[in-house]
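Journal club prep, notes for RB
We'll compare a predicted complex against what the paper describes. Inputs for the adenosine-5'-diphosphate case:
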Amino acid sequence: MRRAIYPGSFDPVTLGHLNIIKRAAVIFDELIVCVCVNSAKNAGLFTPEERVELIRRVTEGLPNVKVDRTSHLVADYARQHGAQVLVKGLRAVSDYENEIQMAMLNNKLYDRLDTVFLYTRPKYAYLSSTVVKEMARYGADLRDFVPRQIIVDVEAKARGLELPRHEERPQ
Ligand code: ADP
């Protein structure tokens, strides 16, 4: 079975991430979307647990997609979970330099591990979690940025409110 891991911060998951998830789920037998708790990055908008919950909600209809989180090295996580492929999304040439360095490092840490890059669909090339957070703080319409199931959560968090209760979410 070909199991791949799609690691990232996903704070929060965007339509760009979801597009990569759907395409990778077609290529691999199983895809684990893994929220990586990166000590170098600041606390973030959502907690790692909340990010996992949001990704689970938007990937509900994808049976071969699992969602998890780790505070360990991605290479160690991959080894422990029997995965030899990492999936990464590339938006622009500027992503490339960093990502290729990470890919080489991860292969150095676990020599069976390879990284597969999926290019972004052009309509998502400008999208990042940072853009989403910025837009949400200004009260912009988030429909073109994040999956509709999580719009209310992102809006509420960005305004510093409690997350909406389940019955208040759009179905
Ligand atoms: P960001 O905070 O930049 O949105 P993450 O650390 O959560 O990103 O990213 C996880 C992975 O998803 C990375 O490989 C990143 O290049 C990729 N990615 C992020 N946004 C997009 C997008 N709009 N299209 C394609 N890939 C993306």
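Talking point for the session: The chain has six helices and five strands.
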